[in-house]
Amino acid sequence: MKIVDTFSIVEDSLYSVQFENEEYNEFRKLFLNWNDPEFLHRFFSEHENDLKSAIWGYISVDEAIEKTRNQAKWMEKKILDLANTPQDPERNLLKYFEPLGDTYVSSTLELNKGKGLSKHNWLRIYAVEPEPNLYVISGGGIKLTPTMNDRDHLKLELRKLKITKNYLNT
Fold it and tell me: Per residue in 71-93, is it b (16+ CB within 10 Å) or e — as a string?
C-alpha cells in the first residue's frame, strides 16, 4: 500500500491522502461509502452479528444503514465547518479529533480519531496531526467492536494510519 498524493480538503487545516489504485482520496471515499446504501448493506450484512449485540440495541441491517447515512451527513458537515474556522479556538478541528489511544503523548504526527454523531456511534475517521490543528485523513471505518484489533477492516485502518505517519515523516 502506497500513498500517491495528498489533497487539500480545506487549505491549511484539513488534508487527505489517496492510496495507490484508489479512485478517490480517503476523505471523499469515506463519505461516498457511508452514503451508499449498497455498500452499507454489504457491510452490515457481513457484520450482522456485531449489530445483534446489546451495545447496539439489536438493530437490523436496514436500521443500521439509516443510522449510518444520518451520522455521515452530520459528521462531514461538522468536520468541514470546523476545518473552515482554524483560528477560532472554540470552533476548530482540535475540538473534534482526539488521540487514538488511551494515553495522550503530545508529539508531532499524533494519531487521532474523530467520531460520529453522538457518544454512542460507530463511525470513525482517522487522521495524523503533523502540527496543531492540521489534520491529514488516512481513512476511517465503521467500528462495531470494542477495539480496532477485532476486525480486519479496522486493522487495515491502523496500517493506513501508520503508512500516513511514515509518509509525513519523510
Answer: bbeebbebbeebbeebeeeeebb
Tens digits of residue pLDDT in 45-100: 999 999 998 889 899 999 999 999 999 999 999 999 999 987 777 778 988 898 98
27-66: burial string, b at 16+ Cβ within 10 Å, e else: bbbbbebbebeeebeebbeebeebbeeeeeeebebeebbe
Q: Write out pLDDT tens, residues 81-96.
A: 999 987 777 778 988 8
Using an 8 Å Cβ cutoff, are 97 and 129 in contact?
yes
C-alpha cell at 102: 488511551
CA distance 37 to 64: 10
Q: pLDDT (tens digit, 9 = 90+) per residue, 110-124?
A: 899 998 766 678 999
What is the dihedral angle through the alpha carbons of 46, 52, 53, 55, rounded to the nearest 10 degrees?
A: 90
Q: 80 to each of 85, 86, 129, 133, 159, how far by Cα in Å? A: 9, 11, 16, 13, 25
pTM of the model: 0.91
